UniProtKB/TrEMBL annotation:
Protein name per the record: histidine kinase
Domain HAMP: 230-282
Domain Histidine kinase: start-end pairs: 318-533
Organism: Actinorugispora endophytica
PANTHER family documented for this protein: PAC DOMAIN-CONTAINING PROTEIN, PHYTOCHROME-LIKE PROTEIN CPH1
Subcellular location: Cell membrane
Pfam families found in the cross-reference section: CHASE3 (PF05227), HAMP (PF00672), HATPase_c (PF02518), HisKA (PF00512)
Segments for region (Disordered): 1-24, 513-560
Record carries keyword Membrane: yes
Composition bias, Acidic residues: 534-544
C-alpha cells in the first residue's frame, strides 16, 4: 500500500530509532527533564524553608532576649534603686529625728535588696554586654552601703551626731549609685530598642519570605502545568489524533511526533506496529483473493464433478437397461442352442456354447453388482435399525448356502442404532457369505461380535476359513481385486468393497484384524459404527432405486 517503508536505523526488535549525536545535541528525556525540574523545585523550596527557619530563629532570639533578659533586667534595676532610695531616706530620717521608727524604710530596703541583687547578678551573668554596667551598679550600691549607711548608723546608735563630712560622703556615693543606675538603664533601654527593631525586621522578613514562597509556589505550579502540557499532554493528544485517524481506516497515515524521547519512542513503536499491520493486511488481502479464486475454482470443479457424476449415473442406467437387454438375448439364444443342439455338434462346439452362456450370466451379475455399488450413498434414509433383525434377514437370505456348507453362525446381542436397514443387512450378508465361500476343510463356523469403544460400536465377523495374509489387508477392500482365480472361487470381487462403502457411508470404518492370534485359523473382519448418527441430515439431491435386498443369487462375495 505504499507505506511499508521502514527506517533503516530503526531497531528491528523494538521499532525505536537510536538517538545519535553528543550529549549536547541529544534531546533530554522526559525522565531527565522531570528529574532536573524536581531538583530545581526542591532546591528553591529547601532554600526558602532554610531562610524562613533562620529568620524565625532570629525573631525568636529577639523575643527571648527582650522578654527573658532585658525586660527583667530593667525591672531589677528599678527595684534595686527603689530599695537604695528607701534605705537612703530611712538613714537620713533617723539621723534627723533620732526616732527608730524612721528606720522602717531602711529595713524594708534591706529585705527587698537581696532579691534584686540576685536577679541583677543572674542577668549580668547571662548578658556579657550589660555585665559591666550591672557590676558597676552593684559595686556602687555596695560602696554606698559600706562607706555611708553602715558607719552612719553605727554612730547614731552610739549617740554621735552626723557630721557634714559624712553627709557629703553619702551624697557622693549615692550620686555614683544613681549614675551607675542611669548608665545601666540606658544600656538596657538601648538593647531593648535594638531587640524590638530586630524583632520587627525579622517579622517583616518572615512575612516577606512567606509571600515570596507563596508567589514561587504559584509560579512553580504554573510552570509545572505548562511543562506538563508541553511535554506530556500535548504529545499524547497528538498521538491520540494520529491513532484515531488510523483507527478510522487511514492505515497509510504515518505517525510522527515532536515530543520527549520516551513519547517519540512510543510513537515510533506504534507506527512500526501500524506498518506491520498494513503489511499483514496486504498479505491477508492477497490470501483472501487467492482463497476466493480457489473457492471459485473448487465450485467450478464441484459443478463439473456433479455433472460428471450425473452423466455416469445416466451411463449406469443405460448400462443397466440397454446393455442387459442384448445380454439377455445372447444368454437366451445360447441356452436355446445348448438345449437344442446339445450332443448334436462336436465337443468343441458344446464347449463354446457353455463359455458363451457362462460369460453372459457373469456379465449380467457384474452389471447388477456395479449398479448396487453405485447406488450406495445416493440416498440417506436412516431409521432406527435393530441389527439383530438385520442379521436375521441376512441369514434367511443365505439359508440354502448355510445348509449346503453345514455352517453354524453365532452372534452376540447386537445394538440398535440409526442407519439404512437394507445396507446394514447387505454388510452382514456379504461378510457371512464370504466366510462360507472361503471355508476350509472343516465345517464353517462364523461368529458376529460387538463391543463398545468410546462413542462407537466395534463389530467383528470371525470365521475358521482359509484366512487372509496381512499384506493383503488393504487390497481386499478395493473393487474387483481378487486373491484367487475365478475357477477356484466364484464371484465378481466387489463384496468387501461394497461393505467398505456402506460402512463409510454410515460414518464408520472397516479393516482386517491382523493382530489376532496367528495360530488360530480363519479371518477376522472388524468395522465400526457411531453410536449416535445424525438423523436430521438432508438426503441427497438425486434419488435412485433402492438397493435390492440381498439374495443368494445377487450376492457378490469378495474373492479374498
Amino acid at each position: 500500500m505504499g507505506n511499508d517503508h521502514v527506517n533503516p536505523h530503526t531497531d528491528s526488535r523494538t521499532g525505536a530509532t537510536p538517538v545519535t549525536g553528543g550529549p549536547l545535541t541529544r534531546p533530554w528525556s522526559l525522565r531527565r527533564r522531570v528529574t532536573v525540574l524536581l531538583i530545581a523545585v526542591g532546591v528553591v523550596l529547601i532554600a526558602s524553608v532554610a531562610t524562613i527557619v533562620f529568620t524565625a530563629l532570629q525573631a525568636r532570639e529577639a523575643v527571648v532576649r527582650q522578654v527573658e533578659q532585658l525586660t527583667p533586667a530593667q525591672s531589677a534595676v528599678h527595684q534595686a534603686m527603689a530599695a537604695y532610695y528607701n534605705q537612703d531616706n530611712g538613714v537620713r530620717s533617723y539621723a534627723a529625728t533620732g526616732v527608730l521608727d524612721s528606720l522602717d524604710p531602711y529595713e524594708q530596703g534591706l529585705r527587698t535588696l537581696p532579691e534584686s541583687r540576685q536577679q541583677l547578678e543572674s542577668v549580668a551573668g547571662d548578658n556579657p554586654e550589660i555585665d559591666s554596667d550591672l557590676e558597676a551598679l552593684l559595686a556602687a550600691g555596695e560602696a554606698w552601703n559600706t562607706d555611708f549607711a553602715e558607719p552612719v548608723l553605727d554612730k547614731l546608735r552610739t549617740g554621735e551626731q552626723l557630721t557634714p563630712a559624712d553627709s557629703q560622703l553619702g551624697e557622693e556615693r549615692f550620686s555614683e549609685l544613681r549614675e551607675a543606675s542611669r548608665t545601666a538603664q540606658g544600656r538596657i533601654t538601648a538593647e531593648l530598642v535594638e531587640a524590638e527593631q530586630d524583632l520587627a525586621e525579622s517579622t517583616q522578613q518572615l512575612a516577606a519570605l512567606l509571600i515570596l514562597i507563596g508567589i514561587v509556589i504559584v509560579v512553580l505550579c504554573g510552570f509545572l502545568w505548562v511543562m506538563l502540557q508541553h511535554w506530556v499532554l500535548r504529545p499524547l493528544d497528538e498521538l491520540g489524533r494520529h491513532l484515531q485517524q488510523v483507527s478510522d481506516g487511514y492505515y497509510a497515515h504515518r505517525i510522527e511526533l515532536e515530543a520527549p524521547p520516551e513519547i517519540e519512542r512510543v510513537g515510533r513503536n506504534v507506527d512500526a506496529m501500524r506498518e506491520r499491520i498494513v503489511h499483514d493486511l496486504d498479505e491477508v488481502g492477497t490470501a483472501r483473493r487467492t482463497l476466493q479464486e480457489q473457492s471459485e475454482l473448487l465450485e467450478r470443479q464441484t459443478e463439473e464433478l456433479r455433472r460428471s457424476n450425473l452423466e455416469l449415473e445416466q451411463f449406469a442406467y443405460v448400462a443397466s437397461h440397454d446393455l442387459q437387454e442384448p445380454l439377455r438375448k445372447v444368454a437366451s439364444f445360447c441356452q436355446l442352442l445348448q438345449r437344442r443342439y446339445q450332443g448334436q455338434l462336436d465337443e468343441r462346439a458344446d464347449s463354446y456354447i457353455d463359455f458363451a452362456v457362462e460369460g453372459a450370466k457373469r456379465m449380467q451379475t457384474l452389471i447388477n453388482d456395479l449398479l448396487a455399488f453405485s447406488r450406495v450413498g445416493r440416498t440417506k434414509n436412516f431409521t432406527t435399525v435393530d441389527l439383530n433383525e438385520a442379521l436375521g434377514n441376512a441369514l434367511h437370505s443365505l439359508g440354502s448356502a448355510l445348509e449346503e456348507a453345514e455352517a453354524v453362525v453365532t452372534g452376540d446381542e447386537l445394538p440398535v442404532l440409526q442407519g439404512d436397514k437394507t445396507l446394514l443387512t447387505q454388510v452382514f450378508f456379504n461378510l457371512i457369505g464370504n466366510a462360507i465361500k472361503f471355508r476350509g476343510d472343516e465345517p464353517s463356523r462364523v461368529h458376529i461380535g460387538v463391543r463398545q469403544e468410546g462413542a462407537e460400536w466395534v463389530f467383528f465377523c470371525a470365521d475358521n476359513g482359509i484366512g487372509i495374509e496381512p499384506q493383503y489387508a488393504e487390497r481386499i477392500f478395493v473393487i474387483f481385486q481378487r486373491l484367487h482365480t475365478r475357477d477356484k472361487y466364484g464371484g465378481t470381487g466387489i463384496g468387501l468393497a461394497m461393505c467398505k462403502k456402506i460402512v463409510e457411508f454410515h460414518g464408520g470404518r472397516i479393516w482386517l484384524d491382523s493382530d489376532s492370534d496367528p495360530d488360530e485359523p480363519g479371518t477376522r473382519i472388524c468395522w465400526s459404527l457411531p453410536m449416535d448418527v445424525d438423523k436430521d441430515e438432508e438426503p441427497a439431491d438425486e434419488e435412485s432405486a433402492p438397493v435390492p435386498a440381498p439374495s443368494e443369487q445377487a450376492s457378490a462375495g469378495a474373492d479374498s
